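Dear colleague,

As promised, here are the two records you asked about, laid out in our usual form so they can be pasted straight into your sheet.

NAME FIELD: protein one
SEQUENCE, THEN STRUCTURE:
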Amino acid sequence: MATTNGTVENGQPDRKPPALPRPVRSLEVKFTKIFINNEWHESKSGKKFATYNPSTLEKICEVEEGDKPDVDKAVEAAQAAFQRGSPWRRLDALGRGRLLNQLADLVERDRTVLAVGFPPGVVNIVPGFGPTVGAAMSSHPQISKLAFTGSTEVGKLVKEAASRSNLKRVTLELGGKNPCIVCADADLDLAVECAHQGVFFNQGQCCTAASRVFVEEQVYAEFVRRSVEYAKKRPVGDPFDVRTEQGPQIDQKQFDKILDLIESGKKEGAKLECGGSAMEDRGLFIKPTVFSEVTDTMRIAKEEIFGPVQPILKFKNIEEVIKRANSLEYGLTAAVFTKNLDKALKLASALESGTVWINCYNAIYAQAPFGGFKMSGNGRELGEYALAEYTEVKTVTIKLDDKSP
C-alpha cells in the first residue's frame, strides 16, 4: 500500500490503516530553504513563494525561491562531489544503492535530515519555477543529464534548451491521453474497478490516468452503469483521513482547467452521468465525474484533463478501436481487458504506447522500464534501460606488443 507522509495514497482501494504515523493537521513545515552541500541556504535573490493547502486554501508556509545563481551553486557542489577520488566516486554501487534507499525512506517519513550519509554536494534541492530554475537547469553547460516529468509543451522547451547548451542527455516523461480498452469478453467487475482506479487515482492527477475508456458496444451500457455506481460512492474529503479516496486538486489553475473541460463535455454533447461540478462548500475539490456517449472529437476525449473525469467511449470491433486509440499524439500507457490472450497480445502489439497493461492497471515496478511513444516523451525511467540513460559507454583499445607475456 502506497503511503505519503503517513497517509494512505488517495485513490488506493485498500482500506488498511496507514503504516506510518499521521502528520499533524496544522501542516507545519519546518524546512523551507534551499538544500546544497548538506546545508540549508536562503535564495540568492531573497525571494520566497507561498504554498497553500488546497483543502482549505490557507497558506501553509513560504519557501525560498531558487533562481539561476542557486542552480549554479548546486551544480558547482555536485561537480565537486563527483570528481575523481571523491567519497561518492569511491563508493561502490551497493553502497550508493543503500544510501538512495535510506533517502527514500526518510523522505516518506518527512524526517528533518535528508543527507543520511551522502557526501556534500551529492543531493541538492533547489525549489523554484520552470521559467527560472527549470530554464537554468536545462541550459546549464555543466549538467550532463536531465530528467523531466511534465507537459509536452514544456518538455519541448527543455529539450531545445538542452540541445542549444551542451547536448546534455534528456529523459522526458510527458503528457498522456491513455486508452483503456474493455472487450465484451472481459471480466466486467475487474474492468470496471481497474478503470475507475485508473482514472480517479490521485484525483486524476496522474500521467498514466485511464482518461479514454473504450468499451465494446455489447457491454457498454452495463459498464457505464457500474462505473457511475463506483464514482458516486467514492469518498471525497480530507486527504489526511484514512477513509478518503479523493482529495483536492493541486492548485487553482488546475482546478479551473478541469472545470472548463467538464463544461466543454456538456456543451459538446457528452452525457453527464454524475458529478460535473466542484464541491459546494470546500476548497479545490471536484466531484467524481463520469461522461458517457463521448466521441473522439470532443475535448474531453482529446486533451489531457489531469482531473477526476472519466470519459467512456463505445467501439464495435478490434480494428476500429486500435485505429482510434492510436489517433492522438500521445503514447504513454494503455490497458486491455479481455479473457482472450490472443486478442490481448494483438492489441498490445498494435497499440502505440510505451506500456500496455493486460487485465490490470497502474502495475508499475522498479524493474520494468517506463516511458512514452510519440509526444509522450523519450527515454525510459526504471529498469536497466533507465540505468543506461545515466551512463556513458567508453571503448578502450590496447595494442599489445607481440613480445608481451
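NAME FIELD: protein two
SEQUENCE, THEN STRUCTURE:
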Amino acid sequence: MNFSRRDFTKMFLGAAALGLVEAANVSKIFAQTKRSMPWLSAQTASGEGFWTNLKIEGTIPKSLNGTLFRTAPGETERFGTKFNHLFDGDAFLTSWKLNNGKAELKAKFLNTPQRINEQKAGKMIYSEFGTNAPNTAKGGKNQASVNIIEWNGKLLGLSEGGLPTVINPTTFDYEGETNFGVIPQNLSFTAHPKVDAKTGDLFAWGFEKGNNGAVHIYQIERKSGKANLLYKYSPDAFYMIHDAILTENYFVLIVPPMKYDIGALMTGNAANMGEAVKYAENEPTKMLVFPQNNQGGTAKPTEIILPSKIVFHYGNAFETADNKIVFQAIWGKDGELLNVLNNWKREDSSEEMFKKLTPPTLQQVTVDLANKTYIGATDLISDVEFPRYDSRLTAQKSRFLYATERGYAENAAIVRVDLESGKSIKVNAGKSRTYGEPVFAPTTSAVNEERGFILAQGYDADKNESFMEIRDAQTLEFAARIWANGQHFPLGFHGNFYAGI
C-alpha cells in the first residue's frame, strides 16, 4: 500500500485520538519529519465545513458578538505540483462567529472560476505568484488570499493580482469581481485599502498591468459605492508597494526599493513574480504624500526621501499641528527575506532558514511636510509583524498598537505597544504553538482603545489543530481559546472582525 505523508499524518492522528498511540509521542514523530513550524502553520487546510459544537477553554465574553473573517493561501501543492512561495495557493476562507458566549466556525475554499477549471481538469492550469504551472499559457490567478473586508453587505477578498472578489458572507460563495463602476480591468488592486474612520470611504490604489505600470489612486464612496480617480502617477520602475497610510488630509504611498525585475522575467532569468522581486539596498525609500483634495486633478504629491528599507506593513498615522506626519512602520533591511518568502512552502524549508534573517523593527517615524524632510524614527520593539490598532481611529492619533512577535515560529507572542510611553507587554503562545495576526475587536460603541478584545488565530503542532484565542485588549489576559474541531487551517496573513455579522 502506498501512503503519502499526508495520509500517514491523518492515520497517525486518528490512532492517537483513539488511544492507540500515546499523545506524548505525537510531537516527537512530527519533529522527525524535520518540517519547520512556519511550514506547518502554512500547510494545506485539512478540510472544509461548518461546526457548532466546538471545544472552548475559558469563557467567551458575552459582550463580544460578531465574526472574525480570515483568508489565507490554502495549499502547499496543486495536483502534484508543489508550491514554493508563501503567497501561493487558492484562497481559503474561515469565519469564527461569536454570539452570546457561543461560537461557530466555517471554513471553505473560494470556488473561483479558475479553481473550478483546475478541479475539473484534475491538474494545475494557472501559475501562482512563486510557482509556475506545468504549462504557463493560461497565465496567473486573481487570488483573494491576502485580506478580506466587509463592504456594503458583502465581503471583498483581496490580493494584488486583480480586482476585488465579491464573496457572500453567509455561504462564502464566489459572486464575481467588482470594479466599482470605473476601475480598469487591467488594474491590480491593493490588499490593504484604507477606510476613513469618519466617512467610511475607502482609499485604494492599483498598478496598470501594461508597459508603464502607472499607479491609480481611488477614493471609493461608502454610500454610493462609486470610485473616483484621484491620481494617476507613473513611477520609474515596477515597485512592490504592499501597504499605505492615511491621515486626515493625505493619502500616502511609501515606495520601498523592492522592485520587480521585468527584464529578468522577459529573458527567463526569473521564472515568476516571486523570483523577480529584488531589494535594491543602496536606493532610498520614497514617501509620496498625496492631498486627498486633488484640486481638480492639478495637485501633485510631496516627495520625501527616507532611508532604504524593506517594508510590508504600517500601523496608524496622524498629522500634527506643526505640519508633520507621524506613523508606525515595520522596517527591515535584510533582502534575504524575499528569498525566504519564495521558498517558504518547500518541504525542505528549515527553521535555520528563518533564524538567519535579521528581524525587522517596529518604529515610530516622523516627517516634516513643510520642509519635505525625514526627521527620524524611534525604535519600539523588534521582530514583530502584522501591526493592528483600533481601526475606528484610522488617520487619527491612537495610543496602542498590537502585533505578532516571531509570527509563525514556535512560541510566538502577541504584543501590545504603548506608543506614548514606548513600553510593551506580551503573552507567548507556548510550546509547539504559534500565532497569526492579532485583531482588535471593540466592545463599546464609543471609541475606547482599552475596552475590547484581541482575537488571534493560532496553530498547535502537537495537536495539528488550529484555534482562535481571545484576550483582553488592555492586559492581554486570557479569556478563551476555541478549538477547530480537529481541523488545521493555514494562518495566512490578514482578517477583520465585524460586530453584528
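A couple of things worth noting about protein two: Residues 1-33 have pLDDT under 50 and may be disordered. The helical segments are 5-17, 24-32, 37-40, 113-121, 262-267, 273-276, 336-343, 351-355.

Best,
R.
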